[in-house]
Protein: Prostaglandin E synthase
Organism: Willisornis vidua
Amino acid sequence: MGTVLQAFANPEDALRNGGLQFCRKDPDVERCRRAHRNDMENIFPFLFLGAIYSMLDPSPTVARIHFLIFCVGRIVHTIAYLLRLKAPTRSVAYSVAQLPCFSMALQILLATTPYW
């Protein structure tokens, strides 16, 4: 049998299984984790706004454009994050992806103001 390598992301797990020397922080794994967290912080609000926006019966073409811009912006942002592309690639991709969110939020607010 070969040697079993131990590596734990959490100190409490490493302590329970041999000591802190087995606690590892891999920079590439941490970058992936941050990229994933960033995606979740942006995608979930977009899904909420998109669902409400869709209930306003928008033009299907305009809605598709909103959704396409967001998706392309987030994909470019994630690729820029993971591949460490030069600034301002990631910032521009983030800003482009936020445009449809602001547009949808504004349209939701305008549609609901008569009911205030």
About this structure: The first helix runs from residue 11 to 16.
